[in-house]
Every structure is written in C-alpha cells, then in structure tokens.
Specification:
By secondary structure, the protein is an alpha+beta fold. The chain is 42% helix and 18% strand. The protein contains ten helices and eleven strands. A hairpin with a 2-residue loop joins strand 2 and strand 3. The protein is globular.
Length: 292
C-alpha cells in the first residue's frame, strides 16, 4: 500500500498537472519491477504510472531517470513514457509517468523497432559519457566524460563494477589479472566510431508494445556510448526477433565483426548482475575474460 503522505503528494501533483481537483479512484500494483514499488494510478482525468523507492538508499534515482526519459523524448527515439513529475515524500522518492497501455505486436513491430533504435543511435555527442551520473538498475552508473570509447568502457564501466564486486569479496586476484590482460586488448577489439546515444539497459524487460502496436522503451540508463552496447544487451537474455537486427543493420550498418564483440560488450551488464544478484553470474564473466 502507498504511504499516506506519498499518496497525498501524488494527489496534489496530479491536481497541479490537470489544473483541477482530480480524485484518485484506484491504485493497482504493477508486477515486473525488481527494484521499485510500482502502481497504476486511476483518476478521474485518466491513468498514470507511479513508482517509488527509498530516497536515502537511492539518492537521485528518479531525478536522473526523468532526465534520461526527457533526453530520449527530445531526440529521435522509440516512444518513451512522458516524465510528468518527481519528488520526495519523507523518506520516499517517487516518479510519476504517463501510463502507456500495452497492446499486441503487429507484423512490422520488430522491423520498426530496429529502425527506431538505429535512428536513436545516430544522435551523437563530442564525448563519451553524459553531463550527469545515473543508475543501471539499483546501482550507480558513472558517466564521467572521455574522448575515447576504450577509456570510457574500461574506467567507467568495467573497472567501476569490478571494484564494487571486489569489495563484496566476489572477485579474486586471478580474475583481476585476467581483466588487466583484457584491457590491453580493448583498443584492438572495438572499431573507432563517434559516441551514440544509447538506452543503456535494453533487455527484454525494458521495452513494450503500446496500444497502437508501436515499440516503447522504458527504464533507461542513458549515456553517449558505443552503440553496440544496446545491441549486445538485447541479446543477453534470449535476444530479440531476427527482423529487429536486420532492420537495424539495414538502417545503420554495424562495423564488421559486431557479432564477435557482443560478449565483450556484455561484460558490463554481467558484472552489474554479479553485483546485484551475487556470484551466480561470475562463471559467464570468467568464460569471456579468460578467452582473451
């Protein structure tokens, strides 16, 4: 159940958005979130999506998510929910979003999704990173700017997660030595490409189909990075339909050898999973690193 003060603040926020007193009719818990409490809020003025969490444990989580959604919405991207408001109520932080009704995939869903992601990735920047840090899942994500992808990937993605895992006793010296050897190979693995705006956490749980059959992306961890990070992440847990990759590649061809780079790109989300869920994912990490 939603805390009383939080509910009161949400009620006042919706009143301010609509410009008129609007009664909350019902609150329905929404399943699927591993991190936040999530609800569909039904009011006299329509539906809203609310999620909240501990403001002390996750400072700035919803503020940065709102910034990411606004960036995706402003640039050429698949549909994202509109970020309406965010705030804090006592020890809870919260984010109020447009509610997107779920629909059924049409026959061109995957082609359209691949094309839209390619269009998103054509948005570039002068450096890799972002002007603020954010979160991936419930973990802080450093977006300190770098002029090269190799530096950014090693220092802001792999080393940050390795340090976290080592502090938890999950990574030993042997694995660290293997990563240090891999770091020397990184410049020969990745092609030189300009930074691309990426979703940052593009797995099957972070997209949906709206009522009109259009692809929507949710829960972003945005930054300007190497665009194949999104492609690789989409393949980490079962993968998307083949039409998605074909349409993407037709619209924005990837450099030769992209398939072989998938497992290197996915070292980052795998290490994130090690830090979120424990050592069960270490085997996958070790099998990739030791091959290099």
């Amino acid at each position: 159940m939603i805390p009383e003060l939080l509910l009161s603040d949400i009620q006042q926020t919706i009143n301010a958005i609509t410009g008129t007193p609007t009664k909350v009719i019902s609150l329905d818990a929404v399943s699927g979130g591993d991190i936040n409490q999530a609800f569909r809020v039904r009011t006299q003025s329509g539906l809203y999506f609310l999620k909240y969490n501990d403001a002390v444990r996750f400072p700035g989580m919803f503020e940065t998510e709102a910034l990411g959604l606004k960036l995706l919405k402003r640039l050429n991207a698949p549909r994202v929910p509109k970020a309406l408001a965010h705030g804090e109520s006592e020890n809870h932080s919260w984010l109020l979003l447009e509610f997107i009704e779920q629909g059924s995939y049409g026959k061109n869903f995957w082609d359209g999704f691949g094309l839209l992601l390619a269009q998103l990735h054509k948005n570039s920047n002068e450096s890799f990173g972002l002007d603020h840090d954010n979160y991936i899942g419930s973990l802080p994500q450093s977006n300190k700017k770098h002029t090269t992808w190799n530096e950014f990937f090693i220092e802001e993605r792999l080393e940050k997660q390795l340090e976290m895992a080592r502090n938890k006793g999950l990574v030993d010296n042997n694995l660290m030595r293997s990563f240090n050897r891999l770091f020397k190979e990184i410049p020969s693995i990745f092609p030189s490409e300009p930074p691309a705006l990426v979703h940052g956490d593009l797995w099957s749980g972070n997209f949906m189909c709206d009522a009109n059959g259009n692809p929507c992306i949710i829960d972003p961890a945005v930054y300007f990075g190497f665009r194949e990070m999104d492609i690789a992440m989409s393949k980490l847990f079962s993968g998307f339909e083949s039409h998605f990759y074909e349409a993407y590649h037709d619209a924005f061809p990837m450099a030769p050898g992209w398939q072989s780079r998938i497992e290197i790109c996915n070292l980052y989300p795998l290490l994130v999973h090690v830090n979120l869920f424990g050592g069960g994912y270490l085997g996958s990490v070790k099998s990739v690193v030791t091959r290099y």
